[in-house]
Specification:
Length: 257
């Protein structure tokens, strides 16, 4: 398995790494999902993680913000080691936003209420303060006109953009996207990917689990290919997609391209 290094590997890790994972193992019972994973993500880097179903992609990014507790190894986010205690997880999640494939919006709350809830409860903002910030991010993802509606009144693409705005409202330093278009109809995929592209162009550090390899070519600084719980290859999109070194990646590309 290859050690994955940042694009500025010569500089000290502490000054550069937004995320550092070392020898990470994760078991679900007898199922060995992550097997000695090493991965660094530099500040400002855009990493796309791809691979066949069941390869450990989603588990990997869920370990970054502590949604999954690793079995062994180390995960560090901006010099804070990820541990399964509430105070540490609050610190980690204040720096790491996450967008899920199933939106995870509260159906009984309006779009605006979904986006202000964490700001009011976790950061102690007044309703007026939280709404001003939330409306700014809803505008950023082009759904500010939906603020007073409930999620069920929105299209899937609009709901996912609301989920992105909600994550951004806490001003994270890193954004994680777990297959953000997999629950969408084909015509809605483009609008969500365009929103993520706009964030990438602004320099947001991000890790995106996706099968959208055209998106990876356009946005990623680095593509990480996983299979069977391991990182098989890592490199620039053109390098991986045009000249795969492993038979496993070549087979995957034949199936998805």
């Amino acid at each position: 398995m290859n050690m994955i290094t940042s694009r500025a590997a010569a500089a000290p890790q502490a000054a550069l790494a937004a995320v550092h994972m070392s020898k990470v193992d994760k078991h679900f019972g007898i199922n060995h999902v992550l097997k000695g994973v090493d991965l660094d993500i530099a500040q400002g880097e855009r990493v796309v993680i791809c691979g066949p179903s069941g390869s450990g992609k989603s588990t990997l990014i869920r370990c970054i913000n502590g949604l999954e507790t690793i079995t062994s190894g180390e995960v560090v986010v901006f010099d804070e080691q990820v541990r399964p205690d509430n105070s540490t997880l609050r610190k980690i999640r204040s720096n790491v936003g996450m967008v899920f494939q199933s939106f995870n919006l509260f159906p009984h709350l309006t779009v605006l209420e979904n986006c202000t809830l964490a700001l009011r409860r976790n950061l102690g903002m007044t309703t007026a303060e939280a709404e001003e910030i939330a409306l700014g991010f809803l505008s950023k993802v082009h759904v500010q006109d939906q603020a007073r509606k409930h999620p069920a009144q929105l299209s899937g693409g609009q709901q996912q953009r609301v989920a992105i705005a909600r994550a951004l409202a806490s001003r994270p330093k890193v954004m994680l996207f777990d297959e953000p278009t997999s629950a969408l109809d084909p015509e809605m995929i483009k609008e969500v990917l365009q929103t993520i592209i706009e964030l990438a162009e602004e320099g947001m550090t991000m890790a995106v689990v996706t099968h959208e390899l055209g998106f990876a070519r356009r946005v990623a600084d680095r593509v990480v290919f996983m299979a069977d719980g391991e990182i098989i290859e890592s490199g620039a999109p053109a390098e991986l997609f045009e000249t795969p070194r492993s038979a496993r990646l070549a087979k995957f590309l034949d199936q998805v391209l």
